[in-house]
Amino acid sequence: MDLVTVLAFVGLALLAWDCIEVGRNDAANIVNAVFGARILPRRLAVALAGVAVILGASLSTPVMETARKGIFDPSLLTLRVAVIAYISVYLVDTVLLYAYSTFGMPVSTTACLIFELVGASMGLYGVSIVHWDKVGTVLAAIFVSIIMTGLAGFLIQRVFRAAVGSRIDDRETILLHGPWICGLMLTGLLWFMVFKGMGSLSVVQSFRESTIDTYTPVFVLLTAWGIATLLVHLFLRVSGDFGTKYLFAGMAVIGMLCLAFAFGQNDLANCASPGLSAFWLWKNSHESVATATKIPIPPWVLFVCGCLIVGGMWTRDAQRVTRAAVNTGSQFDHVALYAPNWCRAVARWIVAALPRRPELAPPPVKTPTGKKLHYDPLRAAVISSASAGVIALASSRGLPVSTTYVAFAAVIATGLADRVLSRGDADLKIGRAIWVVVCWFLAAGIAVVATAVVARLIFHFGVIGLAATAALNLLVRFVAKRRADEQEERVHLRIRESASAEERSQHDQDAEQF
User: Fold this and answer.
1) 263 to 54, 337, 380: CA distances (angstroms)
2) In terms of Cα–Cα distance, which of 57, 27, 55, 58 is closest to 43?
């Protein structure tokens, strides 16, 4: 059996592995808002989001094409070299995503894929093979999506919070402002998810021609906003206190489902395209590399990949990523997080430079079972809705932007809008955000260098090189897991000691008053 055949079938196994790793890390991007607000138990949230992920994955072909052959020119490579490039991406991606996940660090699977493809192609051929214009377009889209989400999340949250304030349970306030706020969210989600995310479907194109193309987008959107506002108002009138209590919680769940659908559309390319490309190249080895990469991918393959992503969302490390993302934007003073001392020092300087103003969010509370409500339902709805809209817009243009970056930007932006990052462990939360961003840049550099080295080892040593790099992958996973568990224990020990100190202080104060 030759090397190409071995790599083709190894690629299928690594495809399943990488799908799980993508689900393991990006779970935080989908359920963190709903989980942080305690709207749904995490298992139920993951189950509902998983259905939407699988549905979105089945419609992800435009993004797949960008990842399969948009980053470098496969026609310049031989069959053997092209397959080595795709497998090298997997050997680095699986361990890189796992290491970040086990430390609770959200990382962009999209950026990792892009830089791994660049590293493999450069390591095997040189800089001339890379489509630098396409790489620049994708990276620009990533940065623009972060800015868009940050600005949108901050402005929307500030406007909605100014209208509702902390009166999230007051019926008169919800009757006054709930309809137009939720109507605007529903209109935005409808626009981005249907006309952008599913714009390639014939039924959507026909509907668009008969509405938007005929009556202009402004008129159609204003009309849709008015209809949605009326429907929400009628719902509140009919449902009574139930509607008042669960209106924004329901919007957060709808936003989560839309984000999950957009995630499935966009991030499937990050784990499926290298393995599918390698297998299709081997299966159609009688054709040129350029021709083989144009073969369409069957929907059932995309469906299976979507199911594997959902499997990764159920893992323990996925819960660690979720908790860390939630704590970074938490309304509570003290949170279980890690950030290096230099990041906390920079954060303290930032906090000291900012003017002291009262926070706008409701005071932090706990559930009857003692669990923290890190967000209120209004903020959770804004986080999930803004993230879903930006990802769906990118997917419609075939750009594999970062769901991680977008969701993280929404959490930080809405936290800044509510002014919840300026007291308590402010230096820790802002320091963690700084550390996450720094690690994103580190991931890019690691992806380029490591993939280039792995590709050269497999190219020169064949099966022996493949076995050696796979063993190195497992070794790094073992070391990362052990160190991450030690870090997690230190963080929780600090929280326990801090809580004990507060209890002793409160006890002393009570004794003095007595």
Assistant:
1) 10, 26, 17
2) 27
Helix axes 3-36, 403-418, angle to 10 degrees: 20
Count CA atoms within 13 Å of residue 289 on its CB side. Answer: 18
pLDDT tens-digit readout, 466-478: 999 999 999 999 9
Answer yes or no: are the C-beta atoms of 395 and 304 closer than 8 Å.
no
User: End-to-end CA distance of the chain, in Å?
Assistant: 84
Q: What is the 3-state secondary structure (H, E, C) of 357-369?
A: CCCCCCCCCECCC
* Nearest-angstrom CA–CA distance, 252 and 410: 13
Best CA proximity match to 29, nearest among 95, 80, 85, 101: 101
Higher pLDDT, 376 or 280: 376
Q: Judge whether 37 and 377 are in contact, CB under 8 Å.
A: yes
Question: Strands, E, within 112-214: which ranges?
Answer: none
Q: Give the residue numbers spanning the domain of 124.
A: 3-513
Per-residue DSSP letter, 331: S
Cα 52 from chain centre: 14
Contacts of 492 (CB under 8 A, 6+ apart): 336
On average, the pLDDT of the chain sits at 82
- Are 288 and 76 contacting, i.e. CB atoms less than 8 angstroms apart? no
Q: Are 422 and 356 in contact (CB under 8 A)?
A: yes
Q: What is the mean pLDDT of the segment spanning 158-163? A: 90
Q: 421-440 burial, b if ≥16 CB within 10 A, otherwise e?
A: bbebbbbbbbbbbbbbeebb
Structural domains of the chain, count: 1
Q: What is the CA radius of gyration of the chain?
A: 24
Angle at 79 between CA 73 and CA 83, to 5 degrees: 80
pLDDT band, very low/low/confident/very high, at 201 (cuts 50, 70, 90)? low
d(CA 485, CA 487): 5
What is the number of alpha carbons within 13 Å of residue 114 lying toward its C-beta? 29
- Residues paired with 191 in a beta bridge: none
pTM listed for this prediction: 0.84
Whether 514 has a pLDDT exceeding 50, the answer reads: no
The pLDDT value recorded for residue 508 is 45
Report pLDDT for 435: 93
Residue 304 is which amino acid? V
Mean pLDDT, rounded, for 70-99: 85
CA–CA dist 104, 249 (Å, integer) = 26
